[in-house]
Fold this protein.
Amino acid sequence: MGNEIESETAYPPAREPVFTETTQIGIVVRDLDATLRRYADDFGIGPWQVYEITPQNAPNLCHDGQPLKASTRAAVATVGTVMWELIQPLDEHGVFARFLSEKGEGVHHIAVATPDFYGTIAEQTRRGITLPLRGSAGGVDVAYLPTDRDLGVILEVFRGMPGATDNPDAPETS
């Protein structure tokens, strides 16, 4: 074969892309403050916005189909056009604590933009799939797709912006 490089794979897409852009990398850490110092001091990444997610301030979030029990402390900063999110579990509950316990620190999820958030979620529901995290908090509808076994990482899809209070494109509930 020599030095030839293939320009196309044998796997052309069978459908239109579901995802259109990478928007965020979510990294689970043991010590948020120490990690923030390393990112800022060693790599010049920042400024960081720090926040907490708890059952009290995010009552519409569910982990594995159940009401949120976990509390986390997190921080976000933008590098280029991609948001970096560092997440520290504050207890032993939820997807982030489970990830930290099973795998240690590292990339937990990658957020991707989709033109059809609700259609993407409906497709998962039709398949009978329980989403690791789903709901809304701070004006953002979010869902984690359980792609870690197939793709090696959880994919996050979302709709809305922090601070928004309504979403005119949300499907009606009855």
About this structure: The radius of gyration is 18 Å. Confidence is low (pLDDT under 50) at residues 166-174. The beta strands are 21-28, 49-53, 62-63, 66-67, 72-79, 82-89, 106-113, 133-137, 140-145, 154-160. Residues 33 and 88 are 9 Å apart (CA to CA).
